[in-house]
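Let's sit down with a protein and look at its sequence and fold side by side. Once you have written the record down, we can walk along the chain together.
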Amino acid sequence: MIREGKFGYHEAISLLVITISIRMALTSPSMVAQLVGTTGWYMTIISALVAAFFFSFTVRLLRRFPHQSFMEIYDEVLGKVVGSLFTLLLTGYLMFMASINLREFTEVMKVFVLPESPPSFIMIVFLICVVVLTLQGLETMARFAKFMVYILGAGFVLVLILSISNYQISNLFPILGYGLDTTMLHGFLRSSYYGEVVLVGVMASSLHGPKEIKRIGNRTLLISGITTSLSLLAFTLVFPYTIAPELVSPMYTMASQINLGEFLQRLDPIFVFLWNFGSFIEVTLLFYCGILTYAHVFNITDKRPLIFPKAVILFCLAIIPDGLSQVEMELVQFTRNWGWVFYFIPPIIVLAVAAIRNKKGGTRGA
């Protein structure tokens, strides 16, 4: 039987920061450059602020029902039937997100590292690792993330520093990109990029009350926002916005262009190895939360029997897209534009219903 266990503030932040920020190593920066031109580095700050606003409603809901997860709150406020529908909506979206992220990772690996390998082979190897970590439980996952966050952070900073010689300040102009209105609009829509911060509501039973959850969420948004903004700023400084949309993975390309003499060049294989771990943690967390929410709806206490069939479903979902263009231009774009509906709106609806019906949980730790 899988045990969620208990883990602390730093483990939770590490888990969520990696899950959100690792997307900068894949195709997201190219899409941002296509949408807003040179303003991506401050557009994402707008997205983080919008996400923080939405997250404040999640905090209020969890304060109203301390030491209860989203699934338990939905059942208590909306009743078992409607609450289960809300939970299953979240389950389906988490599995959808996990499948898209898995396929996006696979396509980037095919382009840069394993061009001759079929996507199914890469995904099967990846999923074996996901299943193994899922079997260890949420606490092990969080502690592994805490270990990896320092290594991934060091690699991220190293890429930014070693790329300084390739920075061109002129690439930041026009400073308003395709217009301030376009930047604001996409800044709001792409608040979905930070949507996984609400997973603290799914993991609430493993955390230590609403006060800690608020700190975890706000600190996650702060760190992820800074990391993403710096990444996009570096991409803009290195690649003119006219060619940036053509790059599959700007972070990988940045690392491949590092050349500081005879003995320090082409460091991209090292960084790809590190970024693989980040994607591994991201997909595993989404997959695990999908199992957790599904098991709650059907009152399944032992989640181990669910892991293999859910992994098969995840593989089947990930194999459906035709290729990188469909993943990047359609599916990833859909999750960035509309993910906020699935992540942020249900807790707001439930909070409103709870206030109307005067529903409250216990006051322990509130």
User: Anything to note?
Assistant: Residues 9-356 form a domain with the Amino acid/polyamine transporter I fold (CATH 1.20.1740.10).
